[in-house]
Design a protein that fits this description.
Layout: E1 2-17, H1 21-30, E2 33-48, E3 52-56, H2 63-70, E4 78-83, H3 93-96, E5 99-103, H4 115-125, H5 130-144, H6 159-171, E6 177-181, H7 189-206, E7 209-213, H8 217-223, E8 226-231, E9 234-240, H9 241-248, E10 251-258, H10 264-267, E11 272-277, E12 280-286, H11 290-300, E13 303-310, H12 313-323
Helix pairs in contact: 4-6, 5-6
């Protein structure tokens, strides 16, 4: 069952163009020039209940704009949007109680108050029953391991602690749909993993529908089986992440540790050399010839260790952008 349906969504902005200097300002008073910025340009997709979907693209692709339209913060220029059978831009109270939007660069916690104060405020705003609030808070606090910071002023918390509390504030009413816009931005590697573990567990436990945007491909790779890719406001791909890998990664990497002094020339006969820093070498080989190329490497060189790896997902996505539409 689809809980999010987007059909031919468009969001255009009219931008004023002015020549520099005083004379340019005077001319703009008489003859203003405008042009349209197509933040989102005719995209369509559906998301079923309980899905965890990666929404990816470069800066300015239209990801955040789309999430703002889905949450009712922006009115679409064209097309139709349905979230939980509601038109988001009507901002019906019944709809607003069923979703949350978490933006990694925006705060909803009160800076000079402890997180607990914001949780209580959100409880009242969303009219959460006392028993449900208590049970939900206890469960989220345990999952995110923040019991010791709930009564400390937000401005005294670390970025990781604040982001965890931002998530609790957004989830205190148990939303059916969660829009996560760069939730791990600025966090260190350890904290990124903890946040990913929480998002995965929350999705599993509550069967919530989650759309995740992130510039960290590890977030998408570890959490999302399906991805929606947009660039310059246009839909480029909608499907399994593995399909992108198979379509745009035509080779795999042989990562080997070699003993002795291997010849670069002879190694190039195995495949395209990506890295040659003996004893570690990395060779790219055609996806359909991995086995025979690995045998050739093992036969002609003194291999002490060998791994066969996929190309980094960041490089695959970058190739998708440069080669054009994949859908």
């Amino acid at each position: 069952m689809s809980v999010i349906e987007v059909a031919n969504l468009k969001k255009y902005y009219q931008v004023h163009e002015k020549e520099p200097g005083l004379w340019g300002s005077i001319k703009s008073l008489v003859n203003r020039k405008y042009y349209d910025v197509k933040a989102v340009d005719d995209i369509s997709f559906k998301i079923d209940e309980g899905e965890l979907v990666g929404f990816i693209g470069p800066n300015g692709a239209g990801k955040t704009t789309t999430l703002k339209v889905l949450s009712g913060l922006l009115y679409p220029t064209g097309g139709s949007v349905s979230v939980l059978s509601h038109n988001p831009y009507r901002r019906d109270p019944e709809f607003q109680k069923q979703f949350s939007l978490v933006m990694g660069q925006k705060n909803q916690l009160w800076w000079d108050l402890p997180p607990l104060e914001t949780f209580i405020l959100n409880k009242e705003i969303y009219e959460v029953p006392d028993d449900q609030y208590k049970n939900t808070l206890e469960e989220l606090v345990e999952m995110l391991e923040v019991a010791d910071v709930l009564k400390i002023q937000v401005r005294k918390l670390s970025l990781g602690q604040r982001m965890k509390c931002e998530l609790i504030a957004a989830l205190i009413h148990r939303p059916k749909i969660l829009f996560l816009d760069e939730p791990t931005i600025g966090l260190d590697v350890v904290m990124q993993k903890k946040m990913r573990d929480f998002i995965r567990e929350y999705n599993r436990r509550y069967k919530s529908t989650i759309i995740l945007t992130s510039h960290y491909m590890d977030d998408v790779k570890e959490l999302c089986e399906r991805v929606v890719v947009i660039d310059k406001g246009r839909l480029m791909f909608d499907g399994k992440l593995q399909e992108i890998i198979e379509k745009f990664a035509d080779h795999k990497r042989l990562v080997a540790d070699l003993s002795g002094t291997p010849s670069r020339q002879s190694l190039s006969e195995v495949g395209q050399i990506e890295s040659f820093e003996p004893p570690r070498v990395v060779v790219n080989v055609p996806r359909g010839q991995v086995s025979e190329r690995a045998v050739k490497l093992l036969t002609n060189f003194q291999v002490t260790d060998l791994n066969i790896e996929e190309e980094p997902i960041e490089d695959i996505i970058r190739r998708l952008f440069t080669q054009g539409t994949a859908s």
